[in-house]
Specification:
4-stranded antiparallel beta sheet; 39% helix
Length: 336
Amino acid sequence: MAGGQEIHRIVLHPGWVTADPGAARGWALVPLRLFLGATFTFAGLQKLADPSYLDGSSPLSVQATIHALEHQSPIGFLLAASGHAPRLVGVLIALGELAVGLATLLGLWVRLTALGGLLLATTFFLTVSWHTRPYYYGSDIVFMAAWSVPLLRGTWDGPNVDAWIRRRAARDPDPERRTLVIGAAAAGALAVATGVVAGVVAAVGRALNTGTAAAAVPTPSPSSATSSRRTPPAAKPHGRVIAAAADVSAGSAVQFRDDSGQPAWLVHESSGEFRAFSAVCTHAGCTVLFSADSGFVCPCHGGRYDAATGAVLAGPPPSPLPRLDVQESGGKVRLV
């Protein structure tokens, strides 16, 4: 009491809750919201528009990715189970990313959406990024941390559908029930919109990429490539046998394990020469696949390597695939 007037002291702290949690809270989280929403929307659309994503014969398909990561991931048992229905899993991943991205941009069901984004990011971290060293080179662990913000806070800065629903429901005698009903209707509308957008993008993507999905990456001619080591006629065979020469037809490759237990590829060139390379991608440690048309292809991030030299042809890999020394003698190919 001072001068006959009461002075009320109001202290605001982080736990303070307004009557409308969706009320204006500033714009600090808008950049993060736009980034997460746009990134997940784009990721879902990109998968749906890519004909090779669900094409089991493509080294970039979801099937190839699942099989490549199955024995490297701590959740390999889940990948093995999903390998029985890879197309369904691939479609669910793409639709999940698209739904999470659109819901984030709209500000709808923020905590539920954030939980979905966190689960997707965690799955990618435990599979695609699990062997990334150092860990901070992998983007998925960053997405995991980013999704924890809206999950804990429960709302986004800036305009959002959740706040509009709460304001509209406040006029009803039972605002909580009205909020749930309107929110469910909005979620249903978003699900329909997601399905329509997914169908249109998938159709357009396949129409535009007809005949180009399996385009071959030029491979240097044998004359321009470095030759493998051939054992001189008088040399005594030594080293571990990794394959019988007759079992690897020209233009094909077989996978084996190097001396450290890591996956590797033995390539039989059309010229008759043999070359061997590590199958561990130099970008994030995923196992690369072999394609007679495209060379070595990383199913995780799209990196491509020359099958004759191991050189990087495209994508994010920072260096070529390590070369392994092999010798052919007496119908056997040996790792030396």
